Amino acid sequence: MQDLNLLANDNRGQTDLGNSSSLVGWDEVTQGTILQSFEGDATGIAQKKAEERSYSNFNSYTATVASWRVKKPVFNIDVCIDCQNCWVWCPDSSILSRDKQMLGIDYDHCKGCEVCVEVCPTNPKSLLMFSEYTPLDEALSQWPEKKKKEEK
Amino acid sequence: MAITSIKNLKEFSTNNDRFEGAHTLCPGCAHSMIVRELMNCTDDNLVISSNTGCLEVSTAVYPFTSWDTSWIHIGFENAATAVSGAEAMHKARKRKGTLKDNDAPVKFVAFGGDGSTYDIGFQWLSGAVERGHDFTYICLDNENYANTGGQRSSATPIGATTTTAQAGSHSYGKKEKKKDMVAIMAAHGAPYVAQLAPNKWKSMAKGFQKALETEGPCFINTVSPCCTEWKFDPKDTIGITDLATDSLMFPVYEIIDGHELNILYRPKNIISVEEYMGAQGRYKHLFKPEYRHVIDQVQKDVDAYWDYLQRREEARI
Questions:
Q1: For residue A57, which residues of chain B lie inside 8 Å, CB to CB?
Q2: Dihedral sign for Cα atoms in the order B58, B64, B65, B68
Q3: Beta carbons of B52 and B97 less than 8 angstroms apart
Q4: Is the separation of the CB atoms in B312 and B263 below 8 Å?
Q5: Cα dist from B207 to A73, B195, B253, whole Å
Q6: Would the CA dihedral through A72, A77, A82, A83 be positive or negative?
């Protein structure tokens, strides 16, 4: 019996909780991290374009992943037919489309995955990959000519 | 509910993105294509919950968040539980009239990878569907635990090599077949269950809108090719998805009320699974003569499953 009493009073390895006032209820527990995506009221944010929104510093829109890129996509507006294939399949929300028109590429968020170039249906493609350091006008001057259909 | 027009891509593209860039998913990851599409196909307020996985760790890298909606993360397995709790609270507060805007439509969505849907979160998802909460669960199926380095999950198909089911001189990779999650969820009696693919953007957006509109628990399994673990070039993400749907490795279909099956995409030219497997590094070893029989086996299974789907569509059972 003595052994059992010893066991019952053995407090080794147990944290001393102190007096009961330090215990908190379920609604008083310290919250996890809460990051606000926007400054102020975010009502109706789905109706606002990116340039009309007030992003907070916690929103990854204010960050950049441009350093991930080795090659960058270059957009040639003369060939584009505004099919928006690149917009729907861009994994990084980097295609700037406004009022059904493709305007260009958001180089802060583009990782250079080349998906937009692959899905571009025009001939020649209106998006092509160039080295990160190629200036825009130089890239546009190197644009290939329209390819003729291969003769069978 | 305010659904956005998906008549054609031009109209769809007038939506404003609520999933921001500069998340840290791999370049060419299909996860963000699927998430973007879901958030673009509605204007309603969204309450989103994510299981642990690639999507969760990449979109909430402290101090940044890529979500312009309410987003919650708790544990590996309980996105379905978290979102069903939020939904129950919303319903109660709506009844009591204590919400800021009592009439604003809110949709509840949970995202999980295949590891947290097929394996770890299976019980939690099953419970949430059984309780009948009004939410949509979307599984981003990349067929392995990509976040932790490509371990096998029960969604990994037979013959694929993973870091815990490696191909070598004595093994052809994973030896077990993939779990049929869509059929399991349909058997729960969920009002809308579907398998969709990001390359068919229209059927995917339609499926998402249908699931959000449907009252009750909906489950959607989406194919999400993983360039890192399937071992292909990031630019080929959509091309690989095309191969997946055309070879019928991932048939695109929906099941309404557990019995009404509709096939949403019938490939004009059905290609062999060999072509799909040949495009990916994880199946490379199967092309050795000693493992050829695995490809033949997979082809047989895929043909039989397509036959089964077609017969079910016709019989309406």
A1: 63
A2: negative
A3: no
A4: no
A5: 31, 9, 10
A6: negative
Count of alpha carbons within 13 angstroms of residue B96, beta-carbon side: 9
- Angle between helix B30-40 and helix B237-246 axes, rounded to 10 deg: 80
Residue B61 with chain A: CB contacts under 8 Å: 60
Tell me which residue in A43, A59, A118 faces B20 most closely, judged by beta carbons: A59
The predicted pLDDT at position A35 comes to: 86
The answer to whether A146 faces chain B, any CB pair under 8 Å, is no
Cα torsion angle, A33, A38, A40, A46, sign: negative
Q: Look up the CATH number of the domain holding residue A102.
A: 3.30.70.20
Residue A77: CB atoms within 10 A of its CB come to 12
Query: Alpha-carbon distance B80 to B108, whole Å?
Result: 10
**Number of inter-chain CB pairs under 8 A, A vs B:** 140
Q: Which residue of B has its CA nearest to A92?
A: B21
Q: Indicate whether A88 belongs to any domain.
A: yes
Q: What is the 8-class DSSP label of residue B168?
A: S
Q: Is the per-residue pLDDT at B74 higher than 80?
A: yes
Range(s) of the domain holding residue A92: 64-141
Distance CA B217, CA A42 (A): 27
| pLDDT (0 to 100) of residue B3 | 74
Could you state, in chain order, the average pLDDT of each consecutive group of 10 residues for chain A (152 residues)? 64 56 71 83 86 91 92 93 93 92 92 93 92 92 83 55
Count of the separate structural domains present in chain B: 1
Closest CA to B244 of B202, B297, B207, B280: B280
Q: Cα(A49)–Cα(A64) distance, rounded to whole angstroms?
A: 19
Per-residue model confidence as pLDDT tens digits over B197-231: 999 999 999 999 999 999 999 999 999 999 999 99
Residue B89 lies in a domain: yes
Strand, coil or helix: what is B64?
coil
